């Protein structure tokens, strides 16, 4: 936690210096007020010196104003520092998450990344705010209060020692008890976020299988787990302040009780007893303020540990140190003995893949579910990196290419097309922000999406909800295809992008698409043979290995796996 605080607070050293100075002013002023008050009582009221009372009263007013200015200034600078710290930390987590490959994203998961970037950062932010407003004043008032109290009367010093030890011991026990609960609370927040995201994302599936009661019970369990943990923390926290004030009041009674005997014996004056009582209150309040920081520290430490896990995780897809920024050829992709395996996996997902895709050709990839088709095409834009072999674009290893140059040449339509909240136009312009309306409509016409977009209330300016949930699966796929077409890249990757389309729409789309992509290299991942039978080459994958490469007619004759796929789909069509 200390490393994290030092790193992200370093740019605000000027603010921190101002905070320390203002807290020093505030604490010093607070320490002198009880002494001035004692002077009025013992030297002014007791002697009837009205002028002296007015003079010291004016000094006390000035000191009080200094204390107010110091406290307000320290709080203002502290709030600015804490908010800026939280902003920078959230940005750092977000930037690191953006650099993650699919492997790291799957390792962490979206719910915990959201919690770490919101709740965990908030805990650290609150700790910075509380510390910034008390880091000097609390210890200074504690140490200074002890010194000033001893200056007033040494005979009552044992009361300070007893009060501080009792208060510190009670608070220490509470902190030790709550530290494991804070860690458990963050884990339960993660779990609640995960369950809630699953319920919202899979609502249609839940309703289709009539699982509402089961899923409601699952959410209720996660919700109650979090509530129970928070309740246990609250029970321990709520005992702190009654105990603190009980100790403070008991200490004040003890000071007055034993101080009265010293006044009667002439060893102490009334004003000194008043000042001593004020200093004792300051000391104990400083203990309370320090305790508040100490109570927040365990939870912030848990959040810092979780944040550091994100910031210390490097992406398995490492940008090149000396990237290639220019390419001589255009649109050629080559796989040379490529393999890919997840860490700790017994078998590779892909093994010994070699093929080449040239401009003006269409290469299709087909195979059973889990054969590695999506993983194969994800290697090209470096969503993951090959563990062996070379994937090259235009003759250069993708690991040596400038990422912006690589991504700028690719138009990817993923297996699960995702639309962002905004409008139809804002989604289509994602790859080309300066695209004109004519370009957008042309892409929609080719993708067979123009008709339903025209029927939408505001056409291109019609709203799209997060994830595209206000359009159908087929419409979502066609908009994702149009988004790739607007960019007009040199390499198109269609990862099972026609699966949600009916046969007629699929055929119309492929016919309209052909002239648009005739000069580009095209890779199509498909399940339907009818979608890819006209491809220049078809690659058949089985359990991560290439078992056949050729045209449709060639593979029917030479590749049993492909022949089985064709036969099964032909029988299904005849039966239908």
Mean pLDDT, to the nearest integer, reads 81
Q: Segments where pLDDT lies below 50 for 5+ residues?
A: 572-576
Which topology of the largest domain does CATH recognise?
ABC transporter transmembrane region fold
The secondary structure category is alpha/beta
* Extended strand count: 12
Given the structure, what is the number of helices?
21
CATH C-level name of the largest domain = Mainly Alpha
**Looking at this structure, what is the CATH superfamily of the largest domain?**
ABC transporter type 1, transmembrane domain
End-to-end separation in angstroms reads 64 Å
Q: What's the Cα radius of gyration?
A: 35 Å
Compute the number of structural domains. 3
Please identify, by name, the CATH architecture of the largest domain: Up-down Bundle
Main β sheet profile: 6 strands, mixed
| Large-scale geometry | elongated
The helical percent reads 55-70%
Tell me the strand percentage band. 5-15%
Describe the protein:
This protein has 576 residues and is of the alpha/beta class. The chain folds into 3 domains: 310 residues, ABC transporter transmembrane region fold (Up-down Bundle), CATH 1.20.1560.10; 175 residues, Rossmann fold; 71 residues, Rossmann fold (3-Layer(aba) Sandwich). The protein is built from 21 helices and 12 strands. The strands form 3 sheets. A 6-stranded mixed sheet has the order 6-9-10-3-11-12. Helix 2 packs antiparallel against helix 3, helix 7 packs parallel to helix 11 and helix 10 packs antiparallel against helix 11.
């Amino acid at each position: 936690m200390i490393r994290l605080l030092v790193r992200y607070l370093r740019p605000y050293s000027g603010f921190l210096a101002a905070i320390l100075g203002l807290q020093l002013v505030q604490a010093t002023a607070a320490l002198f007020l009880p002494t001035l008050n004692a002077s009025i009582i013992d030297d002014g009221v007791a002697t009837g010196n009205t002028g002296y009372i007015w003079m010291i009263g004016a000094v006390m007013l000035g000191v009080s104003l200094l204390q107010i200015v110091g406290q307000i200034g320290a709080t203002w600078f502290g709030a600015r520092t804490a908010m800026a710290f939280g902003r920078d930390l959230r940005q750092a987590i977000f930037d690191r998450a953006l650099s993650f490959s699919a492997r790291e994203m799957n390792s962490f998961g979206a719910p915990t990344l959201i919690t770490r970037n919101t709740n965990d950062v908030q805990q650290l932010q609150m700790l910075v705010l509380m510390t910034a407003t008390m880091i000097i004043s609390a210890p200074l008032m504690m140490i200074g209060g002890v010194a000033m109290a001893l200056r007033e009367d040494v005979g009552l010093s044992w009361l300070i020692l007893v009060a501080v030890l009792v208060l510190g011991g009670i608070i220490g026990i509470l902190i030790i008890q709550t530290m494991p609960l804070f860690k458990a609370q963050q884990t339960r927040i993660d779990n609640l976020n995960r369950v809630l995201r699953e319920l919202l994302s899979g609502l249609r599936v839940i309703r289709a299988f009539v699982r509402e009661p089961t899923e409601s019970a699952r959410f209720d369990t996660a919700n109650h787990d979090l509530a129970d943990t928070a309740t246990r923390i609250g029970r321990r926290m709520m005992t702190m302040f009654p105990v603190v004030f009980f100790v403070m009041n008991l200490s004040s009674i003890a000071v007055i009780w034993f101080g009265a005997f010293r006044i009667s014996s002439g060893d102490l004056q009334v004003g000194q007893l008043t000042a001593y009582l004020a200093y004792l209150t300051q000391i104990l309040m400083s203990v309370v303020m320090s305790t508040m920081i100490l109570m927040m520290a365990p939870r912030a430490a848990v959040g810092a540990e979780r944040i550091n896990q994100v910031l210390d995780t490097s992406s398995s897809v490492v940008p090149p140190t000396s990237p290639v920024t220019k390419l001589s050829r255009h649109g050629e992709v080559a796989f040379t003995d490529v393999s890919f395996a997840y860490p700790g996996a017994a078998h590779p997902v892909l093994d010994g893949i070699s093929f080449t895709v040239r401009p003006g050709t269409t290469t299709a990839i087909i195979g059973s579910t889990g054969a590695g088709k999506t993983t194969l095409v994800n290697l090209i834009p470096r969503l993951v990196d090959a563990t062996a072999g070379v994937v090259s674009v235009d003759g250069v290893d993708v690991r040596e290419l400038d990422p912006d140059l690589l991504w700028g040449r690719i138009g990817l339509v993923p297996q699960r097309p995702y639309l962002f909240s905004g409008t139809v136009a804002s989604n289509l312009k994602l790859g080309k922000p300066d695209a004109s309306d004519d370009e957008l409509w042309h892409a929609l016409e080719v993708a067979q999406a123009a008709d339903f977009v025209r029927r939408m209330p505001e056409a291109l300016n019609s709203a799209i909800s997060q994830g595209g949930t206000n359009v159908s699966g087929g419409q979502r796929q066609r908009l994702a295809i149009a988004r790739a077409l607007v960019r007009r890249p040199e390499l198109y990757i269609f990862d099972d992008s026609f699966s949600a389309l009916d046969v007629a729409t699929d055929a119309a789309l492929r016919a309209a698409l052909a002239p648009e992509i005739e000069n580009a290299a095209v890779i199509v991942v498909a399940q339907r043979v009818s979608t890819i039978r006209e491809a220049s080459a078809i690659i058949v994958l089985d359990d991560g290995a290439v078992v056949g490469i050729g045209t449709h007619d060639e593979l029917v004759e030479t590749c049993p796996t492909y022949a089985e796929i064709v036969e099964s789909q032909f029988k299904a069509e005849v039966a239908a």
